[in-house]
TrEMBL record, chain A:
Name of this protein: Glucose-6-phosphate dehydrogenase assembly protein OpcA
Source superkingdom: Bacteria
Residue ranges annotated for the Glucose-6-phosphate dehydrogenase assembly protein OpcA N-terminal domain, each copy included: 51-164
InterPro entries hit by this protein: G6PDH_assembly_OpcA, OpcA_G6PD_C, OpcA_G6PD_N
Residue span, Glucose-6-phosphate dehydrogenase assembly protein OpcA C-terminal domain: 170-299
TrEMBL record, chain B:
Annotated signal peptide: none
Similarity comment: family membership: Belongs to the glucose-6-phosphate dehydrogenase family.
EC annotation from Swiss-Prot or TrEMBL: 1.1.1.49
Gene Ontology terms, MF aspect: glucose-6-phosphate dehydrogenase activity; NADP binding
Pfam families the UniProt entry points to: G6PD_C (PF02781), G6PD_N (PF00479)
Region annotated Disordered, chain positions: 1-30, 45-69, 532-561
Active-site residues, Swiss-Prot/TrEMBL: 315 (proton acceptor)
Protein name: Glucose-6-phosphate 1-dehydrogenase
Taxonomic superkingdom: Bacteria
Amino acid sequence: MKIDLTDTTASKINKALVQGRRAIGTPAVGMVLTMVIVTDEENAYDAIKAAEEASREHPSRTLVVIKRHARTPRDRTNSRLDAEVRVGADSGAGETVVLRTYGEVSDHADSVVLPLLLPDAPVVVWWPVDAPEVPAKDPLGALAQRRITDMYAVEAPLTALQARVNSYAPGDTDLAWTRLTPWRSMLAAALDQARTKVISAAVESEADNPSAELLARWLGARLEVPVERVVTAGPVVTAVRLGTKNGEIVIDRPEGPLATLSLPGQPSRTLALKVRSTSELIAEELRRLDADEMYAVALRGESGTKETPRHV
Amino acid sequence: MTELEALPDGTPQDAATTPEGSGDTTVEPVGVKAVDVTAVDVKAEAKSNGPVPVADWENPLRDPRDRRLPRIAGPSGLVIFGVTGDLSRKKLMPAVYDLANRGLLPPGFSLVGFARRDWEDEDFAQIVHDSVKEHARTPFREEVWQQLAEGMRFIPGTFDDDTAFKQLRSAIEELDAARGTSGNYAFYLSVPPKFFPKVVQQLKRHGLASPPEGSWRRAVIEKPFGHDLESARELNALVHDVFDPEQVFRIDHYLGKETVQNILALRFANQMYEPIWNRSYVDHVQITMAEDIGIGGRAGYYDGIGSARDVIQNHLLQLMALTAMEEPIAFDAESLLTEKLKVLKSVKLPENLGEHTVRGQYAAAWQGGEKVRGYLQEEGIDPKSTTDTYAAVKLEVDNRRWAGVPFYLRTGKRLGRRVTEIAVVFQRAPHSPFDSTATEELGQNAIVIRVQPDEGMTVRFGSKVPGTSMEIRDVTMDFAYGESFTESSPEAYERLILDVLLGDANLFPRHQEVEESWKVLDPIEEYWETHGKPAQYPSGSWGPKEADEMLARDGRSWRRP
């Protein structure tokens, strides 16, 4: 069911949540976390959909904060909060509150969110777009254990990446990193099989791809070898080559979801490396809510990397 | 169990769902890094087609802090005997696909089917394709399918056909060369018990059971693990003769269920349950596994076996062991075995088996809006059969924690609905400040672990009824975590197949447990054989009235699950 509240406050929203839950006959809640999505009107639909799908795995209360832009100075002085409370079938496996803020209250969205957080449950903030400069210092970010940003959604990803390095605080994570998990697990599995020291490495990807950069930094940090970046036509990451004294370990994904794994002295095999949907990425993010130390390692990378852009 | 039961209907005789056998699964918990290096092959030398592995090698890309990286099985293949059976089509093949789809299978993973069919590899691939499309949990993706399909082989033949096993051997060698499976194979025996010795001996004869240096060969077997202690021991001897006891994995698919694994989390990761998890607070425990279906086409297998051997001996005693056991010193196969064995060994049977055990047979009746046949009218069943389709037993665990607390185990076919649960029922409060009218409707507190369907937990306690007068009534609080259709909530078979490939034996009962369980059940079966006959109960009910009387004698009653 859906309850619309116009020009409202957090306590009225709380009442509506209780009312909604009673109406559908499930007064007990088994929700495990509060998910705060900070977005604009344009990206709200997709983000809510992804969060609802992810909530089937992690039943949660989703608070969507949409900051509305006022077009006239007069509107800007008018402060207003509208809310849309969805429970039951309209809201995945949990509850969703869509908050629209107008005027000054937009700068104080944390005052609306704080009373609506589930008692004693972890809080996750996700900025599908327009992440703050320093997520951990953002008023909403400061409420959360886990802060999810997405470098795919910015104009200059590599600049953003540098900003993430500088502002990193435990609990930060980025979907550009989440997208790498299948690649990373296949690389680790390949190395499990090769069982040999890696002496060189190269990551091939489209230009300015933040995932590729993170992957290169992670490989550099873990393997302690310089990692070459090769620019290709894409899409996204197209290949990773690890040089060993027996030959090269290559995962090659020229296009589409089908990749080839080659190990020295072994027949090459195909493997499926698909690009995952946002809801799957979010579900993965929510599986662990403690600090992702490997992300920090990947962000910082190693100094011994060299840049040799080459166009293919 | 219920879902397994649903499968075998119409199972072709060369591919049943219920292989017989036993073995041992004392595999050291193998870390992700070491999946392809078990204790046997530490001195792994150069494989025929691989690079020279470095001793003490640690994968720099793995780090305990990196918890996103899933456990992926090492290079390996799975050989399924009786691949045309229902279990294989409805559970195993979809589970393999789901694992591949979740990226948990190694690149080059190969699937070999063995059955008495005149098929080519492509025909087999088509069968797998169809069963995956119909039964897989995760969406069908062409690229995942391609990855799998390249490694599919089919060997036509019967189990005494030497040519077929020679063919199997060369197929495995071919796959090692073409797909890099490195000689690591699990043999899944999805065949009826009577074929079991044959298959195992053929594997031995053709050198398939002994792994080449630096690789492993594992056997996966399904219940029944014998039909009594003696036959179970025979089977163990038979399998252990061919496979290293540590490489034999017995599937009890209940143990692959999330909720069952959650019993241990609930008990040992929390502070609030363990203090009351004993005879001072617990009145009794009821473990129920009810099915709403009949025996279907399984007459041949079921008659003479019955529900107690089919369900209590394995599933229910395992659930009971997990519920009653002490805290293991670590969450690994060895420690779990130690604790479960202690429980099974301290099980005490009631002195008067006639009063504290009940068996029954379903009779014709209306069940859930459908008119169904009774057991004795089922096709292929002797009208004078005394096989039980319902069994209830009272057991005690004779140790300090549980002395005097009865564990009631019951299972049956054609009961009210399909449900499996463990209910820990607590004693009444020793003193009540409320007068008796206020608490008239108050029952006993209970913690119910719902194993299937609707996996989760229920807590039942008393609460004041809103209003002016003091009136206390039972309420329940439900907990359900996640839902079964998400990618990360795997089917039991998925989890178990992955564990086999990883060599992780935590969730597999071992031959000592199997034998101890038979020691519990054998005296009951012997008593039943010589005393009376099964009571009749109408299909769709909750069992014979004798079962209700059995609890009434103790001043208790069955929960309606």
